[in-house]
Amino acid sequence: MTHRAAFAFTVAAIILMIVNIASAATCTRGSDDPNYKFSLDYDASTEVNCNWLTKNVKKSSGRIDKYCVRGAVAYACSKTCGNPACTCADAADAIKPITVTATGNEVSCSWLDHKGQNSPRTSRRKAMYCNSNDPTIADGRITQYCPSKCDVCNASPSVEAYVSNLDPSKFNEAGLSICFDLTNGFTIAQDSASLVITNDGDSISVTAFEYNTLLGQLCTEPDVVTTDGKMDLELRADTTSGQSIELLTSVVAGSSTVTVNLLADNGDVFTGIARVSAQSADIGSVQAVADMTDGSGYVVLTNIPSRTLIVSAKGGGNEVGFAGVVPSSPGSSSSIDVFMTTFKAPSDIANNNFSQGTDGWLLPNDLIGVGGLEKVTIEAHKEDVGPGKSGGRRHRHRRAQSSLNDYDLMVNTAGVEGQASVSRTFNVGDGVTEVKVRYRFQTNEVTGGYYGSKWNDFFFVNIRTDKSDSFDSQARVIAAMNDFQLTDFDESTGEMAWEELSLVLPTTSDAI
What we know:
Layout: E1 7-11, E2 16-18, E3 38-39, E4 47-48, H1 52-55, H2 57-67, H3 71-76, H4 78-81, E5 98-100, E6 105-107, H5 120-129, H6 141-145, E7 161-163, E8 171-173, E9 179-182, E10 194-199, E11 202-206, E12 209-212, E13 217-220, E14 229-238, E15 244-254, E16 256-263, E17 274-280, E18 287-292, E19 298-304, E20 309-315, E21 320-325, E22 333-339, E23 376-380, E24 407-412, E25 434-443, H7 444-447, E26 458-464, E27 474-480, E28 499-504
């Protein structure tokens, strides 16, 4: 069965330094804390987790020797640091790990409270050196070396459950057991666990698990594995020490492979560097990212589910590209072409308000779709659209009608297989600091009853400047029908209310 949907898109000061410590602190909690992060010596603004210590096999020994001497690192990353004791202690006082550069004095952790816990000086020192987020004061490392004196050890440890072998932010392999673990060294009481898995509306209850003693994880049995699509997980269990825990999360898994072919404007293979991002149209937070640096013109994405996939690409020369694909079935292989659009020469036609029709806009070569329907049209402006058609969230972006011509540009895909897009490049005048685009989305998949299904119309809006030479210096929205609540649509028309995308301009930008 071929599903052909239609949608319309309308645009409208004291520095503390840490010196090397010769021996490791025996400060450990019994297992690695997956949520803990610490700063790097050579870059205080970069934080890494315990896995970073051993991520590079060749560097792991040096990293452990260097960072596991920090009291809090050794405690939070005790499994990786190899500390068998289960205490939370400071680095040895005799080692004097802190240098106060204002005086040149070397002091130990006990300097923080040597006047006593109730001393005003102790309170001031802890406030300045333990709790400060100012990198010029302590950059967080005092707490990492002196967790006991900074009262890190005094708090009762919290416990949270998490999926230990899958990544909720990525596409996972189908056919894997689902494993759970707890933070802060807690263990799940095996007979207490119950799990409800919901995939595309079908739910199963799981009460039988296998306990992996090697990994310290509770896993589903071999007949309960990740399957194609989005899986909502609801875990309830107790810890072996009696606390009740609950976890509500989702994972996305798949078995399809999608080859993304990057093409230049003229159809030739794109040979520059590019970063390709692909997201499930159901869950915008789930992404696959691949860099193309070898000039091959393609990247291969794996573990893709059989549902709408939105692909975007950003080239190193300020090229961008967007496309969408739905793998035909689980386990299939498919490909998609993404045209990398270069930054075009600015138009000298002043027509951001469509008062001159489509003059100054770049339109599709094939303007007429199936059945003679035009893909791009100029329409009379409608402000009151979407659910309710009056009041509601759209009014936060209500424009001053007297200052603009009442015209909108509509991109229509009714009767069109694939996507349609328009673009415009224009110069910005002196004093312009921000560019905004108003837009709204309409799809007949809502009126046709497809909301919540794998059929999922999507749209994108992208604003970039002539100085957008990095992967991040642009504003964009990429979304699909299922990213929104059904109540965000007028169910009789499939229309949403007006939204707005804005980009604060770099001072050197000349064109948009």
